[in-house]
Amino acid sequence: MTSPASRGLRYAALAALAPLLLGGCLAKTVVDVATVPVKATSRAVDLATTSQSEADEKRGREIRRREEELGKLDTQLRKQEERCLRGDDRACREAVETRRDIETLSPSVPVERR
Predict the structure, then answer these.
(1) Are 41 and 76 in contact (CB under 8 A)?
(2) Cα–Cα distance, 81 to 84 (Å, whole number)
(3) Helix, coil or strand: residue 109
(4) How many Å apart are CA 35 and CA 25, to the nearest integer?
(5) Dihedral sign (CA 9, 14, 15, 17)
(6) What is the pTM of this model?
(7) With b meaning 16 or more CB within 10 Å and e meaning fewer, what string describes 56-78?
């Protein structure tokens, strides 16, 4: 059986050698622990913000969606006007509503300059 004094000496020697033996691991662990809050904050900021290119892509998709809708309304209006000219009163009323929809949507679609 070992005496408490020799056991204490062993623990002291082990404690003195631990930083030398575990220096790289310990230093890396300290750095990892210290950078965790920074990484977490950075990730949260990345998730919360939208980059300019992401915003541009989103705007482009929205503009294309509006252009597509405007094209569908235009086709619908032409068909309604044709039926209206043939005497279909209901088609005339629908054409008026479709024209209003087009007038409402048109300002939100940018005009291409040539």
Answers:
(1) no
(2) 5
(3) coil
(4) 15
(5) positive
(6) 0.52
(7) eeeeeeeeeeeeeebeebeeebe
Query: Which structure tokens are listed for 33?
Result: 């622990």
List of residues 6+ apart from 92 with CB closer than 8 A: 80, 84
pLDDT score at 42: 72
pLDDT tens per residue across all 114 residues of the chain: 566 666 666 666 655 556 666 556 655 665 566 676 777 777 776 666 777 888 889 889 999 999 999 999 999 999 999 999 999 999 999 999 999 999 998 888 887 776
Task: List, in order, residues 6 or more apart from 101 with CB less than 8 Å away.
Answer: 73
